[in-house]
Amino acid sequence: MITTKSPEVTAFEWGKVTVAGYPNPFRDAKLYPGGACAWDWAETGTHHVPGIQPADVETLLEHGSGIVILTKGVHERL
């Protein structure tokens, strides 16, 4: 059972995600139990079409995520 929580998003605007405990905002971010990292769409071929890739989610599962929340993005095009 996971006992560590993901960090909190403290502010959000297009192209800027501020995460508690991280000095610099991310352009896009992945949050998981105990941490966060930049989400580089190019790593897995994510674009507005075809959208979020399974490999993007695998990273979260590898870090112990039991619940994964995906978004469509600011303009609901992802």
Q: How does this structure look, described?
A:
- This protein has one helix and four strands.
- The chain has one helix at 54-62, and strands spanning 9-13, 16-19, 29-32, 35-38.
- A two-stranded antiparallel ribbon has the order 1-2. A two-stranded antiparallel ribbon has the order 3-4.
- It is globular.
Q: Which characteristics define this entry?
A:
alpha+beta; 78 residues; 22% strand; two-stranded antiparallel sheet; single chain
* Number of distinct helices: 1
Kindly report the average pLDDT value: 91
Report the strand count.
Answer: 4
Largest sheet: 2 strands, antiparallel
Low-pLDDT runs of 5+ residues are none
Structural class: alpha+beta
Radius of gyration: 12 Å
Give the H and E element order: EEEEH
Strand sequence of the main sheet, in spatial order? 1-2
Helix content: 10-25%
**Kindly, what is the distance between the CA atoms of the first and last residues, rounded to a whole number of angstroms?**
31 Å
Approximate strand percentage: 15-25%
Q: Based on Cα principal axes, name the global outline.
A: globular
Describe this structure in a few short sentences:
The protein has 78 residues and is α+β, with helices and mostly antiparallel strands. The longest helix has 9 residues, at 54-62.
